[in-house]
Amino acid sequence: MKQIVFFVLAFAGWIMLQQHINMLDPQTLAPSDEFVTINNLSIHYQREGVGNGDPVLLIHGFGGWTKDWAATLPVLAQNHEVFALDLPGWGLSDKPAEFDYSIEGQANFVLAFMDHFNLNQVKLVGNSMGGGISIFLSTEYPKRVEKLVLIDSVGYRHFPTQKLVKRLTRFSMMEKVIHAFLPDFARFRYQTRWLFGDADKVSLADYQYHYLPLQTPGTAAALVTMTKTLYLDSIRNRIELIQQPTLILWGENDPFMPVEHAPLFHAAIKNSEMTIFSDAGHVPQAEVPDQINPLLLEFLK
């Protein structure tokens, strides 16, 4: 009993100490002209290739941000006007505690982003959760999407642990626990070797940069809200409704979205083609860009 009390007190003390972590100001981490206000939210985005052709919109996944496309955006910009945004709650964008973080809610925000830049029709490229958002947009607003690329997309997998997580978020202290853990999250991911297919090629510094935006204000509160509203398989019944030409790309070593899901997408989407990358994980556009970029250029042209 004494050991349990000691552990609880030590844990509580650690949380209290971590609450004084200096959070990062998003406005100091990117140029001012990479921010735009949409629906009263400050949104970080990148835009290249203005005037170069049909617009392409890149949508990151859960835990991602615009930098996930660092090796993709400039290549596509040679032939297209390319946009990448940090979704609300992620990257350097605002992270409101009160927001609809469901796939549908985020998709409708992406639509507002498109309207802001007068993008009547785009070619969508979505990774992971971004794939789910792209599927919703492609089926709910089919005239707004010309072509679709799904990279290790959500859609078929149900996460049974979400019910448990939702119960935990009922406790008021969970936001403080999450906030305290954020500075150590990159190291945790590095030690567990998650995310990338060949983890030995990725340094701790790479992970720290990838998860740097988690240390901006509002992250913990936004994550708590997400657990209550975000169901990554909510668009499952929409997959077979996709009519746009679709390119399916997948990392064979993906620990989150099993490679077995790729042929399910391929079979459900009539006008689709599929490529598997043997040496990649959940974010193949960042791991094997030399293999992915030529496929994207050919498909999107």
Any overview of this molecule?
This protein has 301 residues and is an alpha/beta fold. The chain has a domain at 29-158 and 232-300: 3-Layer(aba) Sandwich (Rossmann fold), CATH 3.40.50.1820. Helices cover 38% and strands 16% of the residues. An eight-stranded mixed β-sheet has the order 1-2-4-3-5-6-7-8, sandwiched between helices. Helix 9 (261-268) links the parallel strand 7 and strand 8. Helix 3 (103-116) packs across helix 4. The radius of gyration is 19 Å and the shape is globular.
Secondary structure topology:
Elements: H1 2-18, E1 35-38, E2 41-48, E3 55-59, H2 73-76, E4 81-85, H3 103-116, E5 122-127, H4 129-140, E6 145-151, H5 162-168, H6 174-192, H7 204-210, H8 219-229, E7 246-251, H9 261-268, E8 272-277, H10 284-287, H11 289-300
Parallel strand pairs: 3-4, 3-5, 5-6, 6-7, 7-8
Antiparallel strand pairs: 1-2, 2-4
Helix pairs in contact: 1-6, 3-4, 6-7, 6-8
Provide a quick synopsis of the model.
The chain contains 11 helices and 8 strands. It is α/β, with parallel strands linked by helices and 301 residues long.
**CATH superfamily membership of one domain:** Alpha/Beta hydrolase fold, catalytic domain
Number of strands: 8
Which sequence of SSEs, written as H and E, runs from N to C?
HEEEHEHEHEHHHHEHEHH
Envelope shape: globular
Task: Name the CATH class of one domain.
Answer: Alpha Beta
* Tally of individual helices: 11
- Portion in strands: 15-25%
Radius of gyration: 19 Å
Query: Which CATH architecture of one domain is right?
Result: 3-Layer(aba) Sandwich
Pairing-aware structural class of the strands and helices? alpha/beta
Mean pLDDT across the residues is 86
Taking pLDDT < 50 over at least 5 consecutive residues as the criterion, the unreliable ranges are 5-20
Q: Assign a percent range to the helix content.
A: 25-40%
Q: Which sequence of strands runs across the widest sheet?
A: 1-2-4-3-5-6-7-8
Give the distance, in angstroms, between the N- and C-terminal Cα atoms.
66 Å
User: How would you sum up the major sheet?
Assistant: 8 strands, mixed
Within the CATH hierarchy, at the fold level, what is the topology of one domain? Rossmann fold
